[in-house]
Specification:
This protein is of the alpha+beta class. It contains 1 helix and 5 strands, in the order E-E-E-E-E-H. Pfam families: DUF1292.
């Protein structure tokens, strides 16, 4: 399974996430990630940000309406054995 490293801006702490699914909405790429490859785990939605120098970074989606909309999309994309609560 593919991984992405997320760096917390405040502490410079690096967290490794497993990419569970990805989608694109209105030209923006989003990743559904979790800290565990399989099994029960909290999941997060990351938004891809294209920097001017071509570097790609990700930020956590924290807007409730955006999380709800993307949660529904990801729930449809994941297999039916996966339980998604948002």
């Amino acid at each position: 399974m593919e991984k992405v490293i997320f760096t917390l801006e405040e502490t410079d702490e690096k967290i490794e996430f497993f990419i569970q699914e990805e989608t694109q909405l209105n030209g923006v790429k989003y990743l559904l990630v979790s800290e565990n490859e399989t099994g029960d785990s909290d999941a997060y939605i990351l938004r891809e940000i294209q920097e001017q120098d071509g570097e790609v970074t990700y930020e956590m989606v924290d807007d409730d309406n955006e999380v709800q909309a993307l949660g529904k999309i990801f729930a449809e994309l994941l297999d039916e054995d996966t339980n998604v609560e948002f």
